[in-house]
Amino acid sequence: MRELLRSLPALSGDAPAFDPDAAPDDPLELFATWFATAVERGVPEPHAATLATADADGRPSARVLVLKDLDADGLAFATDARSAKAGDLAVNPQAAVSFWWQPVVRQVRVAGAARYLGDGVSADDYLARSPASRAAAAGVRPEEPLPSVAHLRHAMTQARERIDAEPGFVLPTWQAWLVVPEVVEFWQGSADRAHVRLVYRRDVAGWSHGLVWP
Ligand SMILES: Cc1cc2nc3c(=O)[nH]c(=O)nc-3n(C[C@H](O)[C@H](O)[C@H](O)COP(=O)(O)O)c2cc1C
């Protein structure tokens, strides 16, 4: 395994030009620009991000999910209130989100407080999902053991029948959350290893930013 790992290339993408001196004052503006570039350059599923949370004892856990929105307030995602991540956020509302866009050798890291966006936004998000996605979410019973994949498919089929019969059904445990950024880092990899890290921090006066050593 060690030899295999060492034989693999890293940072093999094609880095677009990035001038940190011309970066905007607002990191979410830069995020939107970088995201648009990722889409233009064909980065696969650039909206997939790793969300890290920690429980009441500080034990971390991380998983991939999709970004649902980005606005001036922050980054939105959606999940089930019965999930481990929602349990973590209920007791420790601090989160970190990271994106890795390999084809453009770019990483973006966001950290901040997470807040529940409320029942209305959550219902809108749920209803905007495809019927298959709504059924997949509605079929799960995290509080019960899952004996087989066949059980899972059966539960999803039943949920799909309910959704087809009742298109306005909203899963009551579906939750939209917002990560309100306090620190945002833009990492532009470089073939010569002079990677550029531009870090934004928010305080009472607003955003400030500067370079840090890679
Ligand atoms: C590409 C991808 C997208 C995903 N999108 C979501 C999502 O938007 N919301 C979500 O709750 N889980 C999503 N998941 C599943 C999570 O990674 C995770 O397995 C699940 O939410 C349970 O996580 P938890 O037990 O840590 O809460 C996605 C997984 C992958 C690989």
From TrEMBL:
Q: Name one GO molecular function term.
A: pyridoxamine phosphate oxidase activity
Pyridoxine 5'-phosphate oxidase dimerisation C-terminal domain ranges (all copies) = 174-214
Q: So what EC number does this one have?
A: 1.4.3.5
The superkingdom listed in its UniProt entry is: Bacteria
Q: Which UniProt keywords apply?
A: Flavoprotein, FMN, Oxidoreductase
Q: Where is the Pyridoxamine 5'-phosphate oxidase N-terminal domain?
A: 38-146
Xref: SUPFAM superfamilies: FMN-binding split barrel
What family does this chain come from, according to its entry? Belongs to the pyridoxamine 5'-phosphate oxidase family.
Q: What name appears for this protein in its UniProt entry?
A: Pyridoxal 5'-phosphate synthase
